[in-house]
Amino acid sequence: MTAFIHRRRLFEELSMKEWDIPYDELKLFEVIGTGRFGTVYRGSWHGAVAVKLLHVHSLTDHCLQLDTFKHEVATFRKTRHENLVLFMGACMKPPRLAIVTSLCKGMTLHTHIHLRKDKFTANKSVLVAQQISQGMGYLHARGIIHKDLKTKNIFLENGKVVITDFGLFSVTKLCFGTNARGDSLGIPPGWLCYLAPELVRALRPHASLHLPFSKDTDVYAFGTVWYELLCGEYPFKGQPPEAIIWQVGKGAKQSLSNMQASRDIKDILMLCWSYRANERPDFPHLLSTLEKLPRKRLARSPSHPVHLSRSADS
Ligand code: ADP
Ligand code: MG
């Protein structure tokens, strides 16, 4: 038995090596952004790549971080799907822990919706939501929970959806255990409205590592992305975190009374935001619901002049 485990370990180590990128082979150019991950650079490794450099704080944390990191890299390398960012490899020698992925072109949905205030027609929102459901359905079928689905982690490249940062939540949280940003519960701004009631109820100061993430909590987060696409803003807009935690924790939802959308579209939202996790649909179900939505003919009204594949992409 121990020989078997030993051989298995060896095999895992060997297959990990295939994904090991020597840090010296990477060229790092400018910083693209800093997030919960640490720093993201535009880089080069056999072509253009994005390099996420994780900061390792103290030597005592190394072992724990390396194990978590290796585990998450092992998850990451199993993914091949049109709507998921391409994982290329990782640097796994502390203190240099880095994840190398393809460089996403275009902008994130967050940039489109909240910074550029681009309007998405219902038809375009459906196309985007379908692709997210396809990518997420694939992840779930492989047993991978995203844990951080949000418009900042969804790129739009010429109308094609590319989802990033799946399954990397724990290692980023480990590296940033005592998050300087965010409030006393360690809640970074803009994160709360993606958290399902069961997560909100489990929030404790600086303990987000142990939150009960599940496929159902990913579906809840998808609901919020769907709302942002349709309404151009976050649910519970302008409300303080305590008010959101109180409402979501006891099952209240963002009101949809001012939302101009068909019943079917609102029903998807309400189902994804179901208080009970087992009442939320899964992604294959969502995909077929989205595919059945009646398509409005694309009328070019002045209030919705944006045809995504042209004007809302860079
Ligand atoms: P967050 O997702 O919270 O914005 P990240 O650390 O994931 O934080 O990303 C930091 C910045 O790097 C963001 O502006 C993000 O859009 C950008 N970025 C992340 N991954 C990629 C990628 N694969 N290609 C291009 N830009 C990326
Ligand atoms: Mg990200």
**Low-pLDDT segments, ≥5 res:** 176-180, 298-314
Shape: globular
Total strands:
8
Label the structural class: alpha+beta
User: Strand share of the residues?
Assistant: 5-15%
* N-to-C order of helices and strands: HEEEHEEEHHEEHHHHHHH
Instruction: Write down the overall mean pLDDT.
Output: 85
Written description of the protein model:
By secondary structure, this protein is α+β, with helices and mostly antiparallel strands. 39% of the residues lie in helices and 15% in strands. It has eleven helices and eight strands. It has helices spanning 2-17, 62-76, 109-115, 122-141, 169-175, 197-202, 215-231, 241-249, 263-272, 283-292, 308-312, and strands spanning 27-35, 38-44, 48-54, 87-93, 96-102, 107-108, 154-157, 160-163. It has a five-stranded antiparallel sheet, covered by helices on one side. A three-stranded antiparallel sheet has the order 6-7-8. Strand 2 (38-44) and strand 3 (48-54) form a beta hairpin. The termini are far apart. Bound molecules: adenosine-5'-diphosphate and magnesium ion. Residues 35, 152-153, 164-165 line the site of magnesium ion.
